[in-house]
Amino acid sequence: MARKKIALIGAGQIGGTLALLAATKELGDVILFDVVDGVPQGKALDLSQSGPVEGFNSTLKGTSEYKDIVGADVVIVTAGVPRKPGMSRDDLLEINLKVMEQVGAGIAKYAPEAFVICITNPLDAMVWALQKFSGLPANRVVGMAGVLDSARFRHFIADELKVSVQDVTAFVLGGHGDTMVPLPRYSTVGGIPLPDIVKMGWMSKEKLEQIIQRTRDGGAEIVGLLKTGSAFYAPAASAIEMAESYLKDKKRILPCAAFLKGEYGVKGTYVGVPVLIGAGGAEKIVEISLSGSEQKAFDKSVAAVNGLVDACKKIAPKL
Ligand code: TXD
């Protein structure tokens, strides 16, 4: 069976890490695309030279021409600018919306059959715009945010309880921003729901609240430490988990920004929900029941996303 082809649009911090992970896991041959000529080619060559040491046979190529992504099975988009200290994800909207238009056109022309994972911020609005600009079916365009936010939540829980990360599951719904909705009720340690972990006295309610807030602030905490950019190792690992579920038809249920057509009472917007990802892309939106307070928090998050989408429509009326 011919190797799959993975196109990475954006060869920056996350793009380079995506390339490393995709090649090391031999998910397919990698095309690194960027508008800064030289960067994709240099990173692809350097990564290729790690192949003999790591033992992978994936090939990597760098390019500044969209024609080189032709026939890609998966396209992962990080093109755009990241935030700096003091900037919110929303501050990136105008600049990155223009980038999504270019990327959407390139995908439509050269990789219209691909499964597209958008990472660029502000995520929920950018994945919505990318789907519109590319014209690809909504089930083949998803956003990566919930896997990252859930991974942050899981890390903080495992670190606090000194248990294996493998035995911690977590759900985070809603937009990738301050209004995201971590769901303790659907998060477990060894299969034990978090509220029971609190009842058992293994973790205090205050500590859980602190962890939830630290999850919400996860991106800003790293931006504040790095000062020159934002998180990239965990975002890349999260997108690769989504890509692998598609490429290997794993039917994982992962929190992703997906296009809702009435699920959760939401129509025509991308927002983070549990999604079954397989060879058909976003094959099923899993609708979990939410309590009154959870639904209220979710609706608030959807409203924040809709505000960003309205801002996109004002900037690009054709959307
Ligand atoms: O969970 C999430 N979704 C977020 C997303 C997690 C972390 C970072 N998040 C966002 O991903 C971040 O706010 C940015 O919008 C993207 C990419 O972050 P990264 O850290 O990789 O940014 P870099 O290192 O600046 O890389 C961006 C690359 C850079 O090499 C630019 O030259 C390139 O994008 N770029 C373009 N490529 C193609 N086409 C155009 N127009 C273009 N403009 C810039």
Average residue pLDDT: 96
- CATH architecture grouping of the largest domain: Alpha-Beta Complex
| Percent of residues in helices | 40-55%
Secondary-structure-based class equals alpha/beta
Please summarize the sheet with the most strands. Answer: 6 strands, parallel
The unique ligands bound to this protein are: 1,4,5,6-tetrahydronicotinamide adenine dinucleotide
CATH topology of the largest domain: L-2-Hydroxyisocaproate Dehydrogenase, Chain A, domain 2
Instruction: Tally the structural domains.
Output: 2
Taking Cα atoms only, what radius of gyration do you get, to the nearest Å?
19 Å
Indicate the multimeric state. single chain
Number of helices: 11
CATH superfamily of the largest domain, called what?
Answer: Lactate dehydrogenase/glycoside hydrolase, family 4, C-terminal
Catalytic activity: (S)-malate + NAD(+) = oxaloacetate + NADH + H(+)
Family: Belongs to the LDH/MDH superfamily. MDH type 3 family.
Binding site for NAD(+): 10-15, 34, 96, 119-121
Protein name: Malate dehydrogenase
Helices and strands in order:
Layout: E1 5-9, H1 13-24, E2 29-33, H2 39-48, H3 51-54, E3 60-63, E4 74-77, H4 93-110, E5 115-118, H5 123-134, E6 141-143, H6 146-161, E7 168-169, E8 172-173, E9 181-182, E10 188-189, E11 192-193, H7 194-199, H8 205-216, H9 218-226, H10 233-247, E12 252-261, E13 267-278, E14 281-285, H11 292-315
Parallel strand pairs: 1-2, 1-4, 2-3, 4-5, 5-6
Antiparallel strand pairs: 7-10, 8-9, 10-11, 12-13, 13-14
Bound molecules: 1,4,5,6-tetrahydronicotinamide adenine dinucleotide.
The site of 1,4,5,6-tetrahydronicotinamide adenine dinucleotide has 35 residues, from helix 1 and helix 4.
